Amino acid sequence: MAIAIKTPQEIEKMRASGRILRQVHMAVEAAVKPGATTMDLERVAEAKIRELGGKPAFKGYNDYPCCLCTSVNSEVIHGIPSEKKVLQEGDIVSVDCGVILEGYYSDAAGTYPVGRISQETRKLLDVTKASLEQAIQEVRVGGTVGDIGAAVQEMCEAEGYGVVRDFVGHGIGRNMHEDPQVPNYGTRGKGTKLKAGMVLAIEPMINAGTADVKVLKDGWTAVTTDGSMSAHFEHTVAVTKDGPVVLTQ
Questions:
Q1: What is the 8-class DSSP label of residue 144?
Q2: How many Å apart are CA 243 and CA 237, to the nearest integer?
Q3: DSSP strand E in 64-103: where?
Q4: Contact 162, 76 (CB under 8 A)
Q5: Can you name the residues that pair with 244 across neighbouring β-strands?
Q6: 240 HSE (CA, 13 A, CB side)
Q7: Which residues are registered as beta bridge partners of 219?
């Protein structure tokens, strides 16, 4: 797939989709508490998406059954919401969601604490989120995808964390996944050159221990192989001549 360059009008449509998605995340985050199930979060998300006039981007995508991916503790990504998954004090839950509005996609993720969490886990969340913010600063015309990945890798590996290789960020627009791939590791100056009109889903997936992951028998849920905690933050970001524009905040 060739890299799709979006017009300013298309980017505005993606921004409108992203605004809905931000409100979905706010509603879901407010519902994260001990005793809630991940299916409770799913219901909140679907109701909010439909209330605001969007469509869930994930539901039905490659037969995925839900609007959200809800990944708890050592689950990295693609955890399926369930009535049986009850959130406990001290857990973390990574919530990934996408919205379609007028044919344009947005994609964003955040990892939320359930009640009080340990200092070690709080640091994992803070560093992962900061690595996303640092990566976004690398989104500039003439930069490269390698610059983005290097920003995440440098910050997170300096803390001894594992940077997931098996899953990466991606281009986004009229499709959920477009070229180019956007790894969370890389070499500065290498990889696809960034041009105005590209839109990227940048999504650090960072483990407290090993970078290695495996997919469970459900065919979706990816977990850390050593059982360590994992955090996931994501924004949809447009490349413009004036610098990065985050469409999902």
A1: B
A2: 10
A3: 68-72, 75-77, 92-101
A4: no
A5: 239
A6: 14
A7: none
Closest-CA residue to 167 (of 214, 124, 97, 130): 214
| Helix axes 145-158 and 119-137, enclosed angle (nearest 10) | 160
Q: How far apart are CA 39 and CA 68, in angstroms?
A: 9
128-178 pLDDT per residue, tens? 999 999 999 999 999 999 999 999 999 999 999 999 999 999 999 999 999
Nearest to 42 by CA among 87, 89, 10: 87
Q: Which residue has the tokens 């933050």?
A: 233
Please count the residues of the chain: 249
pLDDT over 90 at 1, yes or no: no
Write down the residue that tokens 């900061």 correspond to: 130
* Pair 186, 173: CB distance under 8 Å: no
Q: Residue written as tokens 């009640």?
A: 115
Cα 207 from Cα 110, distance rounded (Å): 14
Chain centroid offset of residue 23 CA: 15
